[in-house]
Each structure stands twice: as structure tokens, then as C-alpha cells.
Automatic annotation (TrEMBL):
Residues annotated as domain R13L1/DRL21-like LRR repeat region: 697-819
Gene name in the database record: LOC105140074
Gene3D superfamilies given in the database record: 1.20.5.4130, Helical domain of apoptotic protease-activating factors, P-loop containing nucleotide triphosphate hydrolases, Ribonuclease Inhibitor, Winged helix-like DNA-binding domain superfamily/Winged helix DNA-binding domain
GO molecular function term, any single one: ATP binding
Record's keyword annotation contains Repeat: yes
Native source species: Populus euphratica
Name listed for the protein in its UniProt record: Disease resistance protein RGA3
A Pfam family matched in the record: NB-ARC
Boundaries of every Disease resistance N-terminal domain copy: 6-97
């Protein structure tokens, strides 16, 4: 971590001279020499950092020296950031263009003010730089005592292959016998515990594969069918009964947000598991106090007579005894054999290597695999590291590293993790180290994590690569090195959306950032916990997980060097504490206070000049102070879910660096001034008021960097098609999803909705479209809709017939809901009628549906549709094509309908009496879901009336029917 900080400071120092030349900003006399001296000292230190970082593992004095270096580097970074911010802000004001009649006067006043502030600022900066120089002098002198070996500073390039960045290991090595043993215990009716609830414990050191084995068992098909309910809870430390009970209830019921008292939670759990055979997995348990487990265990005993079981993973056999496992129900995991360890290691290390390369490296590889000492995580970590290394010299370097000489607890894992970490480029190392601020079992969302990295300055934009791209590459690199696991991937492109970190990897990250990061769970002893942390801590997460009312600990105010404050949960008295908190934590770059019950944002937030990431989502804020517009460095502002928020500050356009603005899930937010936010990459919703004094859709014209998804919401009847063209949506080539919400309810807007849709010039790479509350009587689809893969239509109150969506040649996913007047779905939906025959108009012609590979007389309706979802069709009784009604006697063409359909979901279609033959006879359908549609559900449950292929769905367990 130290080398990453030193690199940042050196970049900042060099930028001072660039600013001096480009902006003609002179430094105070003598400061230039101070800066040169600082640069020289940091460069000399940087040359020995590789040796110092390795020696700190065995030498506490070296570790202390590195901690001092990190502290002064952080402070220097803050000083230089302050300098750069003020200069840039002042310069931008000088460069503004006032109206002609006041231009000279205003320019003189602004320039004079700037010069006065500049003199004062340069003096303050000079004093701070001189003080820091004295501190770094001492550190540089002390460096010589350690006799560090100097090495050439190596700029490592990020080794990155998109096609194979993360390998899913197909087979878990060496655990088949263990898995069979656990399953035999679960299925056995005999237990030494008698009629008591059976508790099986998997015991072993960190990294040996306890959680992996539990996952293998939990996801096994036989286990899935044997138990009525399966529940997985990550416990970790501390053992919080209320949190665990809430997690169990959420797994059983889907929600537990309305319950906070333990007794209420336990009563609800008991009612849901009574008479059921369930499997409860408690992963990573540390608690040795049986009284903490007693109440929850007693609640679950109502399932003991039905063969229910609990599966526990823990590092400590005493915990297994405490949880109630008998000696015969404790499985101590063995280390992998030499062959098993080699198999896992080689599967990763030799991925994408040819036979010649494998032959050249196998002898070294076997020696490295032997050093893993049978630990799966070690083998996986080193295999991932060496996957990108192709020379014997690189493999020899790993085999002969001095890191293997480390002697301390669980060092068998520390050495492989250190080798993988040390091989990373500095920007990736600091990104990994930042993850230590989060608690164990935390679910990392990739894009959110990247934004937090950006806020800390870990990702530097280059001429050819934006910060977001660098962030994704860093994330992929950490995933490829097995620093992340348990991936949740996007169904479309396979990219990772969410992941977790192995406990031992998390412990390693914390060991790298001791005195820099801490996370703390708030309970009665919160103050004493926080007092034990260093006041030089830079990043903190405070978690309110026990659902009891606690204020934010007063000790937080004393951590004046905090750069990150992340609050998870709802502390009490937050509104009273916030002004003081902001006044004390002047170094903050990240402030996340989501769902904290905040009603008012203090105006002094405008003084947090380093602030880059502000998350105030799901609070009760009505407005944001204008002072927030002084936060020149702001990159992310999230006020989503603030349903009382009425408007954004009028001068929000001053936040010229803002890249992410989120207002979704809130009320209608007036958004004046966004036309100045030309750097925006993400804007989830834009709210159009139709008034020149407020937000108008034409304000989007300059936002050509927008990417991903954008929803435009109109409130009011004034929808000017000419104004829509001014938005220049066709210039926003990075947008892939567009949502259109027409939200007023008067008859006047009916024609306007259609005109707006027709006038729209969509982004050229649009793949997905959602249209809600459309009130046009006749749906008119322009030709550009042909390119869409995903379409969602909802709450079209005036529509009696669905539009001809079957004509869309690229459509793969279709969701239609809330069509309150639709009584029948017929030919018009498939697009099989002649244009205009049903009183409809469309830019999509019949000819576009003709299959190029078939006869010219054959029409394919919905040629690529894979997923169809009908929801809340309360009046729909007929879906044409059911009960033998598929033949179109008036249509002279042959037709093929939905040849690619894989999934069909019907939700709340209470009057629907039959499905069409083209669905009933589908041979491609893989999944059927029927909810709150009793007639269809009863037919299928009675034996799949009229459904020749129903049996194959039953065999594959792909049918879901619910009458509730």
C-alpha cells in the first residue's frame, strides 16, 4: 500500500510544476525548492519500497516505518489536492464569460478576488509543505538505518484478458468423499442426538474449503428435493441473534423489514418452519457462548421430528460443541492430497498454455503446488497468479521467494496471498487494500466499488482510457487472481456484477491496512471498540446491524483524518449529529449515509473541498443546500429513493466533474441546470417539468457521455415534440437502455404522447426500451424500434389491443403489464394481419417479418423471442390460438410463431382461460411460471390439459405454480 501512496504523491508533486507553467500560477518564493526536495526524498524512498514491503512481514520496526511513511503520504496528498482544487476553481471563474455589458468589470473583480485568495492560499500551502518536508526528512534519514536494498522502480502493466479473466473451476478437487459423508448425515434418520435438532459441523482452518463444501451440499439436487426449505446465513463475528433471525426470516418469507424485535422474529420463524423439513446453513460461526445460540435453537426445534438439520462451518471445534454437534456429527476437513492440490493448481496455472509451455514449467509447478500444503485457497491463489506467467524465470521467482520463510499462524496462506498481491500493479494493490474497510461476507457490487475507488483517487484517467475502464480492469484482475469469489454474473455478457471476498483474503487485506481501515458493528460496547483504533485511520465503516436504536458513536468525531465514512443502517439522532460530524471530518472524500433518516443536509457540507462521493439515498431530504455546488471535485451524487426531494440546487451545473447523478425511486425532482454537467456518465432519471424555468428535455443536449440506462419522466401535459429533438438523443451513442414515462392523467396529453414518441431520435446503439403510462389510443411504433432486443410496456390505460410486437426482428425479451383494458390478445399482437386491417398503423412492414431462409410465403412472428412475461392483465380472458384457435382462416401466409421461446411467465391474469397452441405445442420452452392465474394454473396442475410437452417440464423441475 505504501508504494501506491508514494506514487500518487509523486504524481501530485509533478503536477504542481505543470500548473505553474500552464496556468501561470507562481509559487511562494522558496516553495519551489521545498517541492523539489520533497520529490527527491520520495523518489529515494520509492526505490527501496519493494524491499521494505517484503521485510515488514517479519520486522515490526520496518512495519512501523512504513506506517509513518503512509501517514505523511496521506497528508501530503491532502495538501496537494487542496492546492489543485482551489487553483482550478479560481481559474474556472476567471474563464467564465459574463454578459457583454458587465464583462470587463466582472472579470476584473473575479480576477482581483482570485489574486487575493491565491496569495493567501500560496502562503498556507507553503507552510504546510515546509512542515511535511521536515517530517519526510526524518523518515528518509531513518530509512538508512534499515539498510534496505535499492531496486529499480518497475512500472507493472496490468495483465488483462477479457476472454479468460475469470475461470470458473468446474470441479472442486478432493471433496467428493467429504460431500458424500455430509449428505449421508443429512439423510440419515438415526442420530446420536436422538430426537433433537441435528447439527452437523464442518471444522477446519481458514482456506481449507469449509464454505465450498457446504455450498456443494446445499446446491446438490438431492438435497434440494429432500428438504422443504433451505436457508443460508453468513454469521461471522459477532454472533448477533437478531440479525441471524432476520436473515432466516427473509429467506423463508422474502421480507422481514417490518420486524425489529427478536421475539417477534422468532415467533414468525417458528410458524413458518413448523411441520417443515428444513436445512439451515450457518456459515463462518465464531461464537463459543452457547447461551447466545440457545433461544434461536429452541425456536427451530419444532422441525426436529421431520428430519430438519443445521449445517455449521467454523474454524474452531469448541464452536462446534457449543452449537450442539455431537462428536459423530463433527467433520474435520483434511488437507488436500499432493495430487489433488496439483490438480487444482494446474487447472488454473496452465489455462491457455500449450503442451510445450506446460512441459517446460511442470517440474517447477509441482514444487510450487507442494508449498500450498494442501490448502485449496493457496493452490487457487498461486494458480491464478501463474496463469499469466509464461517464463521459467517468473515461476522460479515465485518458488524461491523469501516470503515462504514467514513464520506465523496460518502462514501457509499468507505467503501465497502476499505473492499474488505483490505481483499486482500499484493501482490494483491500493484498490484491493481499500476492500478491508468492509466487514466480512460483504457483497461487493462492482460498479459501486469502482466509484469508491475513483473517489479516493486510485484510478487515474489517461488520454486513451477513462477511469471507469481502468476500474473494471482492476476489478477483473482481482477476480482473476482469486481475491474475489462467489460471483453473480450478468446473464447477457457474463460480466461480474457482484462478488464476495474469502474470509482469509479479507484478513490479509486488513493486515495490510492496519491503522488505516476499520469497520465496526454498533452495540452497547461501540465506544470502547472505536477507542481502540488509531486516530490516523483513513477509512471507516460503521454498521448498525442489530436493529436496535443507537446514535452514531461520538468518538467518530475525533477521527479527523478520515477519507471515507460509510454508515450502514439507521442511527438515531443523526440530524443533530450531522453538522458537527461534517465540521470535524474535513478530509472526507467519500460520505455514504444511505437510509440514515436525514431530513436536512447542513450547509457546511460545502466546505468539504476533497469530497468526491456523496450517497444520501433513501433519506427524508426535501432539498439540498446550494453550498453543495461548491464541491468542485464531486464525481458521484446519489439522492435516489429520497421521495420527499423536490428539487436539485439551481447551480448544480457548477459541479463540472460530476460523472454519476442518481435520482431514481424518488418523487418528481426539478432538475434545473443539468445542461452544464457535460461530464456525466450516468443519469438514471431525468424529470421533465415542461416549464422553461425548470427542467426541460432540451437540457440533455450536452450530455453526450451518458452511458447505460436513462429514463425520462414527464410530469404535466406540455410535451413539446420540438423540444424532444433538442435533446439530441441520437448523439448519445453509449446509451443502451431508454425508459419513457408519460405520467400526467388528462385527455389533453393523449395525442402529445404519440407525437413525442414519433419525434424521438433514439441513441444509435439502443438495445432496450421501456414505455410506461402511455395514453395514446392508437400505438404508433416508429421504424427505429426494429433494432431492440428488450422491450417493456406498462400501464397503457387507453390501449385495448396490443401493438404488433411480433414484427420486431431482434426482440428477445418482452414484458407487458398493467394493460387494464385489454380483454383479448389476438393476431394484431403477432403482427400477422395486413397493415391497417385492424385500424393500426406501424412503420414496421409485413415484408420485414418474412424469413430469409424460408419460403417467401412464410412469416415468422417473434423470430428471436426467448422470454415472454404477461403481468396484471386483469380482464384478459382470451389469448387467440388456444383450444385449437391457432389457425388464421383469413391469412394466406404460412406462419411460424415464437420458434425460440424459452421462458413464459403469467402473473395475475385471473380470467385467462387457455394458452395458445403455439405455446402449448412449443418444443423449445424450458421454464413456465404461473402466479395468481387460477384457471390456467389449475389446468396445468391437473395434468397439463392440451399440453403435449408438459411432462418434460415436470421432469426438469421448471414449472412454478402459485394460486396466492
Amino acid at each position: 500500500m505504501a508504494d501506491a501512496l508514494v506514487s500518487v504523491v509523486l504524481e501530485q508533486l509533478s503536477s504542481i510544476f505543470i500548473q505553474e507553467v500552464k496556468r501561470e500560477v507562481r509559487l511562494v518564493v522558496g516553495v519551489k525548492n521545498e517541492v523539489k526536495k520533497l520529490t527527491s526524498n520520495f523518489q529515494a524512498i520509492q526505490a527501496v519500497l519493494a524491499n521494505a514491503e517484503e521485510r515488514q512481514l517479519k520486522d515490526q520496526l520496518v512495519k512501523h516505518w512504513l506506517d509513518q511513511l503512509k501517514n505523511v503520504s496521506y497528508d501530503m496528498d491532502d495538501v496537494l489536492d487542496e492546492w489543485g482544487t482551489e487553483i482550478a476553481k479560481s481559474q474556472s471563474k476567471v474563464n467564465q464569460h459574463p454578459r457583454k455589458n458587465t464583462r470587463k468589470v466582472c472579470s476584473f473583480m473575479i480576477f482581483s478576488c482570485f489574486r487575493f485568495r491565491e496569495v493567501r492560499l500560496r502562503h498556507d500551502i507553503a507552510l504546510k509543505i515546509k512542515e511535511l518536508n521536515e517530517r519526510i526528512d526524518g523518515i528518509a534519514i531513518e530509512k538508512n538505518r534499515f539498510d534496505f536494498k535499492s531496486s529499480k522502480v518497475e512500472i507493472k502493466q496490468l495483465e488483462y484478458r477479457k476472454t479468460a479473466s475469470v475461470i470458473d473451476v468446474e470441479e472442486v478437487k478432493g471433496r467428493k468423499m467429504d460431500k458424500d459423508m455430509v449428505m449421508e448425515m443429512l439423510f440419515s434418520t438415526e442420530s446420536s442426538q436422538g430426537p433433537a435438532l441435528r447439527t452437523i459441523s464442518l471444522v477446519g482452518m481458514g482456506g481449507i474449503g469449509k464454505t465450498t463444501l457446504a455450498q456443494l451440499v446445499y446446491n446438490d439436487h438431492e438435497v434440494e428435493t429432500h428438504f422443504d426449505k433451505r436457508i443460508w446465513v453468513c454469521v461471522s463475528d459477532p454472533f448477533d441473534e437478531t440479525r441471524i433471525a432476520k436473515a432466516i426470516l427473509e429467506a423463508l418469507k422474502g421480507s422481514a423489514t417490518d420486524l425489529i424485535e427478536l421475539q417477534s422474529l422468532l415467533e414468525n420463524i417458528q410458524s413458518l418452519v413448523r411441520g417443515k423439513k428444513f436445512l439451515l446453513v450457518l456459515d463462518d460461526v465464531w461464537n463459543e457462548d452457547s447461551t447466545k445460540w440457545e433461544q434461536l435453537r429452541n425456536t427451530l426445534t419444532c422441525g426436529c421430528l421431520h428430519g430438519s438439520s443445521i449445517l455449521v462451518t467454523t474454524r474452531n471445534r469448541n464452536v462446534a460443541n457449543c452449537m450442539g454437534s455431537s462428536s459423530t456429527d463433527i467433520l474435520e476437513l483434511r488437507l488436500l492430497s499432493i495430487d489433488e492440490c496439483w490438480s487444482l493448481f494446474s487447472q488454473l496455472a496452465f489455462f491457455d498454455k500449450n503442451s510445450r509451455e506446460r512441459g517446460n514449467l511442470e517440474d517447477i509447478g509441482r514444487k510450487i503446488a507442494a508449498k500450498c500444503k494442501g490448502l485449496p485457497l493457496a493452490a487457487k491463489s498461486l494458480g491464478s497468479l501463474l496463469r499469466l506467467k509464461r517464463s521459467r524465470a517468473e515461476w522460479d521467482s515465485v518458488l524461491n521467494s523469501h516470503v515462504w520463510e514467514i513464520k506465523e499462524a496460518e502462514s501457509n496462506l499468507l505467503a501465497p496471498l502476499w505473492l499474488s498481491y505483490h505481483d499486482l500493479p500499484s493501482e490494483v494493490r491500493r484498490c484491493f487494500s481499500y476492500c478491508a474497510v468492509f466487514p466480512k461476507d460483504f457483497i461487493f457490487q462492482r460498479d459501486t466499488l469502482i466509484k469508491l475507488w475513483m473517489a479516493q483517487g486510485f484510478l487515474r484517467e489517461t488520454q486513451n482510457k477513462e477511469m471507469e475502464v481502468m476500474g473494471r480492469e482492476c476489478f477483473e484482475a482481482l477476480a482473476a487472481r482469486s481475491f474475489f469469489q462467489d460471483f453473480e454474473k450478468d446473464e447477457g455478457d457474463g460480466s461480474i456484477n457482484e462478488c464476495k471476498m474469502h474470509d482469509m483474503v479479507h484478513d490479509f487485506a486488513q493486515s495490510l491496512t492496519k491503522n488505516e481501515c476499520f469497520s465496526v458493528d454498533i452495540d452497547g460496547a461501540a465506544e470502547s471498540k472505536i477507542d481502540s483504533f488509531s486516530r490516523d485511520t483513513r477509512h471507516s465503516m460503521v454498521v448498525f446491524r442489530n436493529y436496535k436504536t443507537h446514535p452514531l458513536p461520538a468518538a467518530i468525531h475525533s477521527f479527523k483524518k478520515l477519507r471515507s465514512l460509510i454508515v450502514d443502517g439507521r442511527p438515531s439522532l443523526m440530524n443533530a449529529a450531522l453538522p458537527k460530524l461534517i465540521a470535524n471530518l474535513s478530509c472526507l472524500r467519500t460520505l455514504r449515509l444511505s437510509g440514515c433518516g436525514i431530513e436536512e443536509v447542513p450547509s457546511n457540507i460545502g466546505k468539504l473541498i476533497h469530497l468526491r462521493h456523496v450517497d444520501l439515498s433513501f433519506n427524508e431530504i426535501r432539498e439540498l443546500p446550494e453550498e453543495m455546488c461548491e464541491l468542485y471535485n464531486m464525481l458521484t451524487l446519489d439522492v435516489s429513493g429520497c421521495d420527499k426531494l423536490e428539487r436539485l440546487p439551481d447551480n448544480i451545473g457548477r459541479l463540472v466533474k460530476l460523472r454519476y447523478l442518481s435520482v431514481g425511486d424518488s418523487g418528481f425532482v426539478k432538475m434545473r441546470g443539468v445542461e452544464g454537467l457535460s461530464f456525466l456518465r450516468e443519469l438514471d432519471e431525468f424529470h421533465v417539468s415542461g416549464s422553461d424555468k425548470e427542467s426541460n428535455i432540451g437540457d440533455l443536449r450536452n450530455l453526450n457521455h451518458l452511458q447505460g440506462s436513462l429514463t425520462i419522466r414527464w410530469l404535466g401535459d406540455e410535451k413539446d415534440p420540438d423540444e424532444v429533438t433538442k435533446a439530441e438523443l441520437n448523439s448519445k451513442k453509449h446509451l443502451t437502455h431508454l425508459g419513457l414515462w408519460f405520467e400526467s392523467r388528462t385527455e389533453r396529453r393523449i395525442i402529445r404522447d404519440g407525437e413525442v414518441l414519433e419525434a424521438l431520435e433514439p441513441p444509435p446503439n439502443l438495445e432496450s426500451l421501456e414505455i410506461d403510462y402511455y395514453q395514446g389510443i392508437i400505438p404508433v411504433f416508429p421504424g427505429w424500434i426494429n433494432k431492440l432486443r428488450v422491450v417493456t410496456l406498462g400501464d397503457w390505460g387507453k390501449i385495448e389491443k396490443l401493438p404488433p410486437l411480433g414484427k420486431l426482428p431482434s426482440l428477445e425479451e418482452l414484458t407487458v403489464y398493467g394493460m387494464g383494458r385489454v380483454r383479448r390478445v389476438g393476431r394484431e399482437f403477432l403482427g400477422l394481419g395486413v397493415d391497417g386491417e385492424d385500424g393500426e398503423d406501424s412503420d414496421i412492414s409485413i415484408g420485414e417479418m418474412t424469413s430469409s431462409s424460408s419460403s417467401s410465403n412464410t412469416i415468422i412472428a417473434f423470430p428471436k423471442l426467448k422470454s415472454l412475461f404477461f403481468w396484471a392483465f386483469l380482464l384478459m380472458g382470451e389469448w387467440e390460438g388456444g383450444e385449437g384457435g391457432n389457425e388464421d382462416k383469413t391469412n394466406i401466409f404460412n406462419s411460424i410463431i415464437m420458434p425460440s421461446l424459452r421462458s413464459l411467465t403469467l402473473w395475475n391474469c385471473p380470467k385467462l382461460t387457455a394458452l395458445p397452441d403455439y405455446v402449448l405445442q412449443s418444443t423449445t420452452l424450458e421454464q413456465l411460471r404461473i402466479y395468481m392465474s387460477p384457471i390456467i394454473g389449475a389446468q396445468f396442475k391437473a395434468g397439463g390439459k392440451g399440453w403435449p410437452n408438459a411432462s418434460h417440464l415436470h421432469r426438469r423441475r421448471c414449472v412454478y405454480i402459485s394460486f396466492n
